[in-house]
Amino acid sequence: MLTEYQTKVLKYIVDNNEEYIVDSARNNGINKPDASVGVAKFLSADSGNFAKMSTSQKHHYDNAIKPLIIDVPCDGMINEDGSCIGNGSIDEDSLLGAYIGQDMRCQHCVSTKDAWFANNP
Hints:
Largest sheet: none
Radius of gyration: 16 Å
Order of helices and strands: HHHHHH
Number of helices: 6
Structural class: mainly alpha
Strand content: under 5%
C-alpha cells in the first residue's frame, strides 16, 4: 500500500516528469519502460490499486517506481566529497518539494547550505 505522500509524489511524477519513470526503468534493466509508466499511472489513480497489482506490475513497481518514491537518495552537499549530511535519503515529507524544485537534497543538506549562504554573503 502506498502512503498518501507517496501517492502524491507518484502522481506529480506521472503528470510532470514521466521521463523519470522511463529512465528508472531503463537503469534497472526493464525492457519495456512504457509498461512501467502504465503501472505508475494505475497506482497514482488510486492507492488501493497497489493490492490489485499482478506479478508483472509488481516487478515494474519494485524496479522502476519504488526507487523514485521510497528511500530516494539525497544528492548531498556541494562540498569536497558531495556527501549527504543527513541520513542519505530525502524524507517523505520533503520529496514532493524536491521533485517540484528539481533539487534532490534532503532537508538537512538544503538547510545547511541555505544557512551557510545566509552567513557568508
